[in-house]
Amino acid sequence: MLPHERPPLPPADLNRINPAIWPRTSGRTDGTLTIGHVDVRDLAREHGTPLFVLDEHDVRARMRDYVTAFAGSDVHYAGKAFLCREIVRWLHDEGLGLDVASGGELAVALSVGFPPERITMHGNNKSVAELTRALEVGVGRIVVDSYEEIARLGHLAERHGKRPKVMIRVTTGVEAHTHEFIATAHDDQKFGLSLSAGAAAEAVRRILALPSLELVGLHSHIGSQIVDTAGFEVAARRLAGLLVQIKDEHGVVLPELDLGGGYGIAYVEDDEAPDVKEIADGLREIVTKVCEDAGLPVPRLTVEPGRAIVGPGGVTLYEVGTVKDVEGLRTYVSVDGGMSDNVRTALYGADYTVTLASRASTAEPMLSRVVGKHCESGDIVVRDCFLPSDLAPGDLLAVAATGAYCRSLASNYNYLPKPAVVAVADGAARVIVRGETEDDLLRGQL
Ligand SMILES: Cc1ncc(COP(=O)(O)O)c(C=O)c1O
Fold first, then answer.
1. What is the pTM of this model?
2. Which has the closest alpha carbon to 357: 327, 398, 387, 391?
3. Are the CB atoms for 52 and 420 separated by under 8 Å?
4. C-alpha span between 412 and 419 (Å, rounded)
5. 185 near 122, Cβ under 8 Å?
6. In which residue ranges of the chain is pLDDT below 50?
């Protein structure tokens, strides 16, 4: 720790399972963490560690919360957060649509019969093969991201005798992160067509000139882990301005507006996750007002939450391998996974909450850092935390809110197999993604 950094304060109760951070069905029974009424020691015994545990009730409830709060609009789950066949089945049951960002994500959805018309395809560099597949199966929307793609898709659609519905990904110049938003500077990025530079308006012209494409709306995604709606307001205003411009220039009123995802969740004690109903009411009000002010009919709204659906219901279980006290600094606790199952700490400096899961402890708190087993000193799972000072090899640790952007960003760095994902509910656990084996790692090696 650098001299100017003050150590964080230990929490009042190291054993507390804060319901704002942990899955809705989690708690302690006789000191041990349970999720979905399943004892984590049983999960570790049966499925090994590291292990992703997904609380089915939690994830499904959040899906329903979004559908209810956004009644009259479309909720498309952003599959990049975490996608597998079972999640697709849950989406289907709960009435959501799906956003895919690649042919692979599309294949997962189609493999279990998800209706293609409820799928939106994203990506700044979709291949001809991906676009062709999207056309063949008839995905509901394709969000175009460049002039090249407009020409490419127009040509492919004509060749296949199709007329796909397309939206334009507009760079509104707003990038929002958590507590602040910057409304001027973020045209400098790979996604979208700039509003201020006129590229979005030019994309409209090009699409309208192609009879093989049907332009249905505008799309904007302003960032991730956003906790207030101020940035959406700026983006919505700017998009409405473009809708007016399109109406004036072409006499066309576009019927749809997609405001993307990015709704924040609580990772640590001080985080405040926005309430989904407040988000929905806020966005609807903003869009209605800006459109009415501009004399436009209110378009049908789509939102694309990823993290907020699947993040809070996920927990990663690890087994402690070594506990190393670095005198005067902190204790390094090494676990059996690391940046290969959770790269967010190394990639974004993300914060997490961790607890001793296999038992409760009344020992003194010790300032700790949970690290992985990879050959990188940046291989950190939880940067600053307190764990009980009687922590020992063989104990299980649980890290909260790992349902989103952990398994989906997992790698085989150092040839570690990717962990299994089990869904827990009502006292039972079932594997929804099989853990990789050494055979999986060797497959494809010539
Ligand atoms: C276009 C688009 N929609 C939705 C999302 C989902 O964001 P989140 O998981 O933060 O809700 C993303 C995330 O990068 C995105 O790029």
1. 0.95
2. 398
3. yes
4. 10
5. no
6. 1-4
Structural domains in the chain plus CATH codes: 27-55+312-439 (2.40.37.10), 83-310 (3.20.20.10)
Is 261 close to ligand 1, i.e. is its CB under 6 Å away? yes
* One-letter identity of residue 159: R
Instruction: Evaluate whether 282 touches 328 at the Cβ level (below 8 Å).
Output: no
Q: Return the biggest CA–CA distance within the chain.
A: 72
The set of residues, in sequence order, having a beta carbon less than 8 Å from that of 92 and lying 6+ positions away, is: 112, 114, 115
The DSSP 8-state label assigned to residue 332 in this structure reads E
Answer left, alpha or beta for residue 213, where phi above 0 means left and psi between -120 and 50 means alpha: beta
* Residue 21: alpha-carbon gap to chain centroid: 16
d(CA 10, CA 359): 19
Structure confidence by residue, pLDDT tens digits, 17-58? 999 999 999 999 999 999 999 999 999 999 999 999 999 999
CA nearest to 391, candidates 341, 446, 320: 320
β 27-29/365-371 pair status: unpaired
Q: Please compute Rg for the chain using Cα positions.
A: 23
Among residues 377, 378, 381, the alpha carbon closest in space to that of 318 is found at 381
| Distance from C-alpha of 193 to C-alpha of 16, rounded to nearest angstrom | 47
Quote the ligand 1 centre to 304 CA distance (angstroms).
Answer: 6
**Cα atoms found within 13 Å of the Cα of residue 305, Cβ hemisphere only:** 31
170 lines ligand 1 (CB under 6 A): no
> Is the CB of 169 within 6 Å of ligand 1?
no
Closest listed residue to residue 173, CA positions, set 160, 159, 153, 191 = 191
Residue 3: per-residue pLDDT: 43
Are 304 and 260 in contact by the 8 Å Cβ rule? The answer is: yes
User: Which residue in this structure is represented by tokens 């291949």?
Assistant: 127
- Which residue carries 């640790």 as its tokens? 397
Helices 85-94 and 103-111 sit at what angle, rounded to 10 degrees?
70
Name the residue of 221, 229, 257, 303 whose CB sits within 8 Å of the most ligand 1 atoms, as the mutation to test its pocket. 221
| Per-residue pLDDT, 5 | 53
To 10 degrees, the CA torsion angle through 41, 42, 46, 51?
-50
Angstrom distance (rounded) from CA 356 to CA 41: 11
Residue 101 to residue 143: CA distance in whole angstroms:
10
Active-site annotation holds for 291:
no
Computed over every residue of the chain, the mean pLDDT equals 94
Rounded distance from Cα 25 to ligand 1 centre (Å): 26
